[in-house]
Amino acid sequence: MADNELKHENFDFRGFDVPDLKAAAMADAQNEQDLRGDRGGKDKSKDKAAKAKGKGKATQDKSSSKSGKPGKGSKSSAQKAAAKPAKQTRPGLFDPITLRELTVRNRIWLPPMDTYSAFARDGRPTPFHYQHYVSRALGGFGMVIVEATAVAPEGRISPCDVGLWADWQIDSWRWIVDDIKAAGATAAIQLNHAGRKASTGCFAVGYEGQTVPAEAGGWPTVAPSEIAFGGLDKPRALSVDEIHGIVGAFAAAAGRAVAAGFQAIEIHAAHGYLISQFLDPLSNERDDEYGGDLEGRSRFLVQIVDAVREVIGEDVPLLVRVSATDWAAGGWDLDQTIALSRILKEHGVDLVDVSTGGIIAGVSVPVKPGYQVPFSEQIRTKADVPVTAVGLITKPKQAAKVLARGEADAVEIGRAGLRDPYWPLRAADKLGVPVADVPYPRQYVRGAY
Q1: Active site annotation includes 273
Q2: CA distances (Å), 389 to each of 170, 369, 373, 449, in order?
Q3: Which residues make Cβ contacts (< 8 Å) with residue 335, sequence separation at least 6?
Q4: Example GO molecular function term (predicted)?
Q5: CA 38 to CA 264: how far, in whole Å?
Q6: Which of 99, 179, 185, 447 has its CB surrounded by the most CB atoms within 10 Å?
Q7: pLDDT per position as a tens digit, 178-231
Q8: What value does the mean pLDDT of the chain take?
Q9: What is the DSSP code (8-state) at residue 443?
């Protein structure tokens, strides 16, 4: 990559092993034929192989005519074919993936996206949430990851966030979970504590981009250190005992999620929320065991992972969402994310859900199609852990190429999935996948593309 492509206002890619985008683009042509399943392309390959074989034989015959025997050092076509490494076959969008004892029907996943629609402010989902999530399950998504769900009322991003901080919330989730699974998708849920980014406004409350005042239903916020996010209210620093209490809150919420029927649990350690605030030195100035070096700053997350795993057992997959970089000099970056991912793998995390950003307000991010994919590839390769890729992945061939290149194990279709609940079914048509191999609901098969 050119030097000017490696730098922008708040982040410098130099020193990171970021894949060469031009080289990746050149590889597109090679992958395109396989992705289309073009029989004609396969026939052309056979023709080329036949020509190469004939050419090799002619060369050998010519050498033999001069010496009366095969040329010195010459190899037969069969020997050359045996010496050539076999082409690696990678899974496609509609191939299943197994995490522990759970098999997900395909690798097109709906990422967690906040809807701020628990209008009663009690954390319980509503008919809107049923419609939103079940329609995506019917639309063919492999895993449906429910939005950031608060483990404590003061951990909500907004007053209208959903939650699982109390047992009486469990039943309100069951009908949604049951019908996600009935539609053939995997039901997962993201657990979160917003920390200093809690008690913020939304379309249903007002005060968007601001702290909601107490008279409008807001509350004081907490964080690792007394450092505010942008123009939000200054948080109070958590005590060690309070940190231990939040670890327990994550574990308890995970237990409730499993009781509600969720099949996989994701811990939200990205986007500048509480766990992310502990990880990033720009927001964590603690001088106790929860601050300082990477081991100290990651201690909170590791303790949550261990506590959640103890509650959910060995069969339930555990995912962690991370920001691979916070796009700010001196802050959380790719090298630390790779080191953290190795630690998480050792503690039983099954997949790292890779995103970026969120800890610092107003940073410049080089947004473009697939802009976060290189981070996924680096974490997958260097930490040897399954990963997702997300971030302006909107087109079927674009998504398929991410898997074909080995850059991720699953792709998440976010905003495009908001626009089109049936994105996977359309993608299958674009990619030429036979209808029999596409997760159409039986009621919709006669309307298949």
Answers
A1: yes
A2: 30, 12, 5, 27
A3: 16
A4: NADPH dehydrogenase activity
A5: 36
A6: 185
A7: 999 999 999 999 999 999 999 999 999 999 999 999 999 999 999 999 999 999
A8: 87
A9: G
Closest of 313, 280, 309 to residue 297, by C-alpha: 280
Tens-place pLDDT, residues 27-63: 444 444 444 444 344 444 444 444 444 444 444 444 4
Q: Which tokens is 297 given?
A: 């700053």
Q: What are phi and psi of 63, to 5 degrees?
A: -65, -40
Q: How far apart are CA 139 and CA 56, in angstroms?
A: 51
- Integer Cα distance of 42 and 137 in angstroms: 35
Q: Where is 389: in which H helix or E strand?
A: strand 387-389
Q: What percent of the chain has pLDDT over 90?
A: 79
Residue 409 corresponds to which amino acid? D
Q: What is the pLDDT of residues 330-373, one digit of tens each?
A: 999 999 999 999 999 999 999 999 999 999 998 989 999 999 99
Is residue 168 within 8 Å of 122, Cβ to Cβ?
no
How distant, in Å, are the alpha carbons of 76, 77, 131 from that of 70? 10, 13, 72
User: Which run of H or E residues covers position 152?
Assistant: none
Q: What is the pLDDT of residues 249-266, one digit of tens each?
A: 999 999 999 999 999 999
Q: What is the pLDDT of residue 11?
A: 38
Domain ranges of the chain: 38-89, 97-447
Contact predicate 180/133, CB 8 Å: yes
Q: Do residues 297 and 243 make contact, with C-beta atoms less than 8 angstroms apart? A: no
Question: Which 8-state DSSP code applies to residue 163?
Answer: B
Q: Report whether 160 contacts 171 (CB < 8 A).
A: no
Alpha-carbon distance values, 300 to 156, 357, 380, 424 (Å): 19, 19, 23, 37
Residue 378 burial (C-beta neighbours within 10 Å; 0-12, 13-18, 19+) = buried
Radius of gyration of the chain (CA): 25
Is it the case that residue 72 has pLDDT exceeding 80? Answer: no
CATH architecture of the domain with range 97-447: Alpha-Beta Barrel (3.20)
Encoded tokens for 267: 């811990």
Two tokens at 208?
């968007």
Catalytic residue chosen out of the listed positions 116, 133, 273, 290 = 273
Token match 């060995």: residue? Answer: 314
What's the CA dihedral at 268, 271, 272, 278 to 10 degrees? 40
